[in-house]
Amino acid sequence: MLEAHALHLTYPGAERAAVAGVDLVVEPDEVVAVTGPSGCGKSTLLHLLAGVLVPDAGTVHLRGRSLSGSSSDGRALARRRGIGMVFQDGRLVPELPAVEDVMLPLLVDGIRRREARRRAMAALESVGLGELTVRRPTKMSGGQAQRVAIARALVHEPSVVLADEPTGALDRATGTAVMDLLVSSVRARGGALVVVTHDEQVAAAADRRVAMLDGVVSPAGAQGSASGAPRAASVR
Ligand SMILES: Nc1ncnc2c1ncn2[C@@H]1O[C@H](COP(=O)(O)OP(=O)(O)OP(=O)(O)O)[C@@H](O)[C@H]1O
């Protein structure tokens, strides 16, 4: 589904690489947790997978199609359509009612407002926010706002959802509910989920754990499986 090979990225002026040669294969229907200490490169890896950052070296393929390298329109489109992103703080637009925010990825893709609104309403319904479609995120609880962010990541039906500490700002019960929702929404569509997390409970909900240290996948992490049943050849 999603395949990264030999990814490297050094931020300008940095002494060492934030991501220093990561290989990662995510299978369809798989939930992968990326864990590791602060600063080890988890978010950078996720942003490389999403195409938010362009690697200095290495490749990212989604369903066999290259997403990495210099960004042609075709690649940008493949990324936009194929990947959904959930940020730690949701990154919702404070001025926009939930439905307008969830419509954004569809409008960027040229879908007409009326159809975009219909699909955004359905996505909000599916995350249990059918009653709050016109509420602004500033008037929502943290868990509700994060559900809006999940609806926005899923509304264009991506193959892969990448989530950067989606429960980081939430209390435990709300975080568990949000993670359950994310996993079930992605699984219901046969998609894959990569979730960066510091939270043991979130990592335990994954099929497999990839532990990073100093910009690389630690050997123990490559073997690790949250469920105790490693999937062969998923991380090399
Ligand atoms: N925009 C940036 N410019 C320069 N250096 C950066 C930038 N973003 C991250 N870094 C550095 O790259 C390294 C990896 O950072 P990254 O945010 O990927 O780690 P992380 O594992 O996600 O950390 P955390 O768990 O604290 O979010 C760190 O040393 C960090 O200081």
Automatic annotation (TrEMBL):
GO cellular component assignments: plasma membrane
Ranges where the ABC transporter domain occurs: 2-235
Record bears the keyword Nucleotide-binding: yes
UniProt superkingdom: Bacteria
Alphabetical keyword list: ATP-binding, Nucleotide-binding
Gene3D superfamilies: P-loop containing nucleotide triphosphate hydrolases
Pfam families: ABC_tran
Gene Ontology MF terms: ATP binding; ATP hydrolysis activity; transmembrane transporter activity
Membrane spanning residue stretches: none
Name listed for the protein in its UniProt record: Putative ABC transport system ATP-binding protein
Species in which this protein is naturally found: Paraoerskovia marina
